[in-house]
Amino acid sequence: DNLSSELTLDTLSDYIGISKYHLYRDFKKITAQTVFEFINNIRCKNAKQMLSALLHSVSTPPPRACIEEV
Fold first, then answer.
1. Single pTM value for the model
2. How many CB atoms lie within 10 A of CB 36?
3. What is the mean pLDDT of residues 62-68?
4. Angle formed at CA 53 by CA 49 and CA 55, multiple of 5 degrees
5. How many helices (H) and strands (E) does the chain have?
6. pLDDT value at position 33?
7. Phi/psi zone of residue 17: left (φ > 0), alpha (ψ -120 to 50 degrees), beta?
């Protein structure tokens, strides 16, 4: 998952095979966001999903069979 690594416009443009200026301009024209706004939005959505899953697992009581009666 490359979203967790540091990304630069140079790295992305080299990978895609176009200049960083074309990448920046064309990406913004298509998405109405810069490349880094787009990546940060995805990172935030992923973090929100992970946090939500963590909070759900913490707040969910164990199954009844696992609760020891005293």
1. 0.65
2. 14
3. 60
4. 115
5. 3, 0
6. 96
7. left
